[in-house]
Design a protein that fits this description.
The protein contains 3 helices and 9 strands; from the N terminus they run H-E-E-E-E-E-E-H-E-E-E-H. It is of the alpha+beta class. It has a single domain (2-16, 27-155), classed as 2-Layer Sandwich (Gyrase A, domain 2).
Length: 156
Amino acid sequence: MRWTCLLISLLLFTHLPARAGHSAPKIFLRIHVQTTGEGQSQLETAEIMLPPNNEKILIRALPEITEQELVNVQADAAGAVHLQFNHQGQVALSTVTAENQGRILVVIINGYVVFAPVIDEQITNGELILPHQVNPQMVQLLQDVAQHNVREAAKT
């Protein structure tokens, strides 16, 4: 178990690019997909527990999408949070939801599983909707990261 925690921590931090003049994000968004683990080494998978029943599943250790692909975050009147991704994130979301129907898509914010639906259809519009309320401070941090990403993209 200790090795699993260490591995997940290393993967989370090594996935973040080191950029001169850029501080680390104040919030981490990781979107993973469930895997069977067949044909994969232990370094390529991680075991996590899903709330509320602490069901254990294997996920791909490297995330499909991170906060780096966020371009817009909006909370609606019903409390759902809409995450909109850039082209890279849109392609990744479309691919992972097309190729993994019947598996679980795991959305993790700052180390906490906030949404884990079974993939039942391909998402092609680049928008993932978290159907329940998320802490308003987390929503604000996600919005800040999305705005930062848009500004950075405009510089290139």
